[in-house]
Protein: Transcriptional regulator
Organism: Liquorilactobacillus capillatus DSM 19910
Amino acid sequence: MGITIKDIARETGFSVATVSRVLSNKEGFFSQKTATIINAAAAKLGYKKNMAATELVTQKSNVIAIIVNSTKTNFSEAIIDGIQKKATEANKRVIILYAGDHHAQSQQRALTTALERPIMGILLLSVDLFAENLKLLKSARVPFRFISISFKDPTLNYVASDDYQIGYEATKYLIEMGHRCIGLAGIDLESGAHTGKQRLAGYQRALLENGIIPQKSWIQPGNYSYTAGEQAMLNYHQQKKVTAIITGSDLVGVGLLNQAAKLNLNVPNDLSIIAIDGTYLCKIVQPQLTSVTQDFYQMGYLGAAYLINGQYQNAFTDIEITERQSVKKRSL
Amino acid sequence: MGITIKDIARETGFSVATVSRVLSNKEGFFSQKTATIINAAAAKLGYKKNMAATELVTQKSNVIAIIVNSTKTNFSEAIIDGIQKKATEANKRVIILYAGDHHAQSQQRALTTALERPIMGILLLSVDLFAENLKLLKSARVPFRFISISFKDPTLNYVASDDYQIGYEATKYLIEMGHRCIGLAGIDLESGAHTGKQRLAGYQRALLENGIIPQKSWIQPGNYSYTAGEQAMLNYHQQKKVTAIITGSDLVGVGLLNQAAKLNLNVPNDLSIIAIDGTYLCKIVQPQLTSVTQDFYQMGYLGAAYLINGQYQNAFTDIEITERQSVKKRSL
DNA sequence: CTGAAAGCGCTTACAG
DNA sequence: CTGAAAGCGCTTACAG
């Protein structure tokens, strides 16, 4: 596949060993003079190192594999930017594999693609692995770490927001804004990750602390999608109880918002919404969605750093409430 | 890095040659009986083939590298899905590289990451390469193809929509809806790709065919972004001339829509909008955006097919007008 | 400072 | 049907 060090050796008269040394910059093992000659020849011939060969002999790789869902998780981009930043600083490469929209088979394909070549580690962006795929991943001797979702299982490492805190803060904020009947919509309570359950726990805690008894009907679980938001709104509308809703993602928030409009409900006058995530989606809808904003860039950066440094502890990144236009103070 | 065929050879008593043959399924070169033994051993030891080694010796690769912009091109997902589909059918792997937000350096990093290992080809998703990076790409002996943008340069292959046709159809549609003063916003006229220029040409053609003289002020170029849409709307508002606008992307359309709302303009009553792209964004805003819808999935599928088959012609994929809520018929 | 040689994990003519 | 051997593009002790 093109020019090799052998070609350069032939061209310059040096041995492949020497060529290899200057091309991989083994300081002290060559004179400046021969370096100049060899580099010139490399440039002239358009040499490109075959990293696969290097990885084969050195038995280590400098590539990080990211596995992402192809589902509409509009925040993966920020996470990836954070990873790239850290990777660049540490002189690592990153490749991305698509795991499809929560299908066992495409998950497996992505995993296999990553595992069947030398990589230094795997970062999984909010992909909730099927049991057999988790087993596959564990059986490989490759470090890995989840980003943006967390687990109870102590053998699984992650960098994520503190989802308990997210549920707690969102609820507390709405209570401070005068709401007492507060919905929680679009979170996944069935998943292997305990993201949804944690948010629910934080939500319940905040309610109880303020003397509010959580009602079962206030909770409309879902899979974090736009349609989950639409469906939840339909259900809330039948009950006519809640005055404010926390949505499991921005997309759930937008679905809910648009369904509310169809039902002739005005947000925030008739109904307040706070979305969890805080990506650009919150800013491009009308009214703009108030959100619990997660620091996705930081998640990516930290996740990459831990992977690169071989650190195995978990970490939480910061969250904050970003006030926009979808929550209204309710006078009692 | 884990179990190798040598380990399996030792375990089973066969030579590495035989192990290799059954593991890579060279039909006719082994008995069913030894296959059973070897496969069992491989499963037991948790063997994972090192494809990098295979690629080194066979001098060919089955991985397709996709290079994408990290910019908010919300349609890349559909393209990638199409590519994955074809790749899976042809038993190829795909890896994705992020080229950042139009920075020469991160483009180069993505390109290098792809080129410094064996790959069968490169697919570039709407990435407008800097001159030096295009040169780098051409100097490698790797087939490549652009997707979703087209070029004049005959050495560059692409699969895209016919942008002339897009400009033409969008304009014709608005004229049929009774509009005569029609804006074109957020398209890039400077880029190396001729996407923007083609759309402009189609637009002008449709205007002229209907006896309308194109006005320079009707054209507000930009970089296909949300902010380009906001800015364009501000400019149009000062002029108060156009009654309908074609936007270079869905995101431009949304930016324009929201800016219009800030200016107390009602879409579609005061102003009609048709967006080019037609991704889910058009459906999650209010009012929903009418669009010239591109078939991104098909672009990806076809692009991958051509790359895999070594076909070098260009191709156009279908477009269609999808009517939603942002264009209103204007009675004359 | 430089070269010859061994070896990373795999495949594949060649011989049997 | 199976094995010994050479080789893909690189790196790195070892010797000089």
In short: Chain B has a mean pLDDT of 94. Residues 282 and 289 of chain B are 5 Å apart (CA to CA). DSSP finds twelve helices and twelve strands in chain B. Residues 1, 4-6, 16-17, 20-21, 23-24, 26, 49-58 of chain B lie near DNA strand C (CB under 10 Å from a C1').
